[in-house]
Amino acid sequence: MFENLSERLERSFKILKGEGKITEINTEINVAETLKDVRRALLDADVNYKVAKNFTDTVKQKALGQNVLTAIKPQQLMVKIVHDELAELMGGETVSMDLKGHPAIILMAGLNGAGKTTMSGKLAKLLREKQHRNPLLAACDTFRPAAMEQLRVLGEQIGVPVHLEEGATDPVSVARNAIQHAKAQGFDVLIIDTAGRQAVDEELMQQIQDLRDAVQPDEILFVVDAMTGQDAVNTAKEFNDRLDYTGVILTKLDGDTRGGAALSIRSVVNKPIMFVGTGEKMDALDPFHPSRMADRILGMGDIVSLVERAQAQYDEEEARRLERKIQKNQFDFNDFYSQIQQIKKMGSLKDLASMIPGVGKAIKDMDIDDNAFKNIEAIILSMTPKERTHPECLNTSRRMRIAKGSGTNIQEVNRLIKQFDQTRKMMKMVTDKSKMQQLAGMMKGGMPKM
Hints:
Elements: H1 3-13, H2 31-44, H3 49-63, H4 74-89, E1 104-109, H5 116-130, E2 135-139, H6 145-158, E3 162-163, H7 171-185, E4 189-193, H8 202-215, E5 219-225, H9 230-243, E6 247-251, H10 260-269, E7 273-277, E8 285-287, H11 290-297, H12 303-312, H13 316-327, H14 333-345, H15 349-354, H16 359-362, H17 374-381, H18 385-389, H19 396-406, H20 410-431, H21 433-444
Parallel strand pairs: 1-4, 1-5, 2-3, 2-4, 5-6, 6-7
Antiparallel strand pairs: 7-8
Helix pairs in contact: 1-2, 2-3, 3-4, 4-11, 5-6, 7-8, 9-10, 17-19, 19-20
């Protein structure tokens, strides 16, 4: 996400050197040259030309004449100014949906292929699991019958009911029936999936306008593919002129190395980006936080989002149970396997790693396989219940059987068991206060010489 832009901006800031006061003409601190490079970086990232120009003009105005504090270098001050302006460019504040209706109605709009149907399912899952709502999905894409079936399958996958009427041709009638069904069955949110086309046309716009007028939605969300660049911005403007939607969902942001749409849409249509799609899994939909996104663009990571993802998988009772087992040195492969499953639920490994400050650049060209735990899981699942609970019984013959059963080799099994033993010892030490104090005393006295 934004890899190229991040790299270009980092190079731009290196132009600034020296200390003192930032001035426009200075042999050591050349703001004009820096901002020229920043503008090129934004344009290469497919940011709208006017948006890029206004952005650098604002940064220049705020930077010139700023006194550099003793503890801050000009380069650091410029990064701070650019960070604040990037966050402001993308909306400044996080904007949430206002769902007050009974049921609250969300109308999804956008072109065909942008991901409306999938996003409808992801949004329903997010509302149910994180906001404890009771959503109903409505299949109102009567133009593409496969969309109805797709939404039905997604609904089954995430456990959310779908209102659909096979053979229906009038989306307004389907939507009205869905509202009545939602009221009768006690659903508090209705998400309406609508038809799209390959390009903006009058028939499409009239149909979505008719739907809007008929159901009076609380929120109209425009779904747009971030990888389409400036076309996404142009389409967003056309839809907004006709629909006056309330927010934007950017899809496929995980696969977009340029990301110019995210930086341009808010400025061009003056509507907030509310959510971003960050992967193919049904839980890969995140609220959009402009300041956090600015952090990631500038290579500062996003620790807050990383902690929030961890907390979403955190079970207090399970944590207490695990702590008791660790203290008694009873942490076993069942617990180890459970921890792996929680990490996998947090998202792709590369995306998680990129949230750690300084790591994003280091892993930019690395191919981090989301199946990295595949062999470990296979080895653990090839153990008997007794072996998982009592790892000390894993002798050579058992290890050879596990290697054959998991499709790995004896070296991989031995390596995993060794790593598990080391992890268990470290976890035991962390929960043992007296040993922690002893370790702290050793560190205070200095590391032993080799």
